[in-house]
């Protein structure tokens, strides 16, 4: 694959920027600016980069970058967007999974876009971008081409996803990640209260995930609910009687599994 | 680690036996017999082994093995146990996660045990035993030593787990595996109905699992519920209105997450 080298300015020095900036450099791009409200944070990130200038002033009027990436918290974006000054017709992309493209609507002098890596980032956990899906959105065709080349230089999974679809992705992620994490928490709590280690379940959980992504998850459902094993279901409900919420979750998910079978 | 070589007879030629038998051989043990109700199945498995004799007769009275492993379905075990004939004082272990040690109670001439690998097996998916937790139970001290050596020759994770604890492990696995798989199914369905691919969520799900097992899952909870992001919660509930069960699951899990925070 050809490696297009773009000049990229990064607004934000948090978890996303922290991983994205070096990855973009490694892919051949040049990070020209790192902005953060806190200069020390911008400097800390810029230090790890070849030629990035750190700044706490979001005035980019005298700069020229092919792409301005706003990797800040959802709650901080509107304010920063209002404060920032970009050269006329700049391509400015945010990295949020939830903010619509519409946030750029009031700013007619720039081309707004979404450059959203579908993954959670934490500073100390290394990330391989190769398999991270990038969800891209913009109404400008040339801008889309540039975003696709940029994302494609990082990852093999690049998708056009509009704001409506991003909402659906987010809902699906709530079920597949947020809610499952809560079930892991309940499972861990049950084990810990009985002096058993949650780690014992790790191989089984990992296998469950592999199976779910290799086939339709509903088609590989196992357990007492799908077997209509009333004996086990009643015993397990009985065990949960000290926690009515967990009992309700057990009953409702059992019923939902049985509805699907 | 010393590699003790035991003579082992396998009763069953299903998924568990199919993976366990060659792994035991590789660990230095000798599989001397493979029993199956269907001779062809016993033969098919024995063919892959060095010196195993296939049989469809559960009469082991003229044999001498250090360990008889009954790797059959829960529903088939009681009948096979009644039909089988073992030499006096034989060590006979089942591989079930749900059957209690008590199933051996009526058979005073043998030493009953549990040799339970905490993983699901399917014939065509290769398995590495190294990380699979083995849950062992028996009342006989020498028998426990032999089971520990056998399990220890396969895996680095060997646990003494009594029948009551095994029940709790099973309940925890229902939450962490069966119920999460159902949530994966709902997530995949929502995406597919909107022409989006479930595979897009795989990196995020895998990261969620890694995080959940590296810290307390409750402490790494993310999403609209824990943020009390009522706006997103209401929008997402609205989206689910055509499916009352999914709506109920969303409401209940959101409430449960908030109770824990």
From TrEMBL, chains A, B:
Residues 7-84 form the Pyrroline-5-carboxylate reductase catalytic N-terminal domain. Gene3D superfamilies: NAD(P)-binding Rossmann-like Domain (3.40.50.720), ProC-like, C-terminal domain (1.10.1040.20). This is DUF2520 domain-containing protein. PANTHER family: CONSERVED HYPOTHETICAL ALANINE AND LEUCINE RICH PROTEIN (PTHR40459:SF1). Coiled coil: none annotated. Signal peptide: none annotated. Transmembrane segments: none annotated. Residues 132-257 form the DUF2520 domain. It holds the Pfam family F420_oxidored.
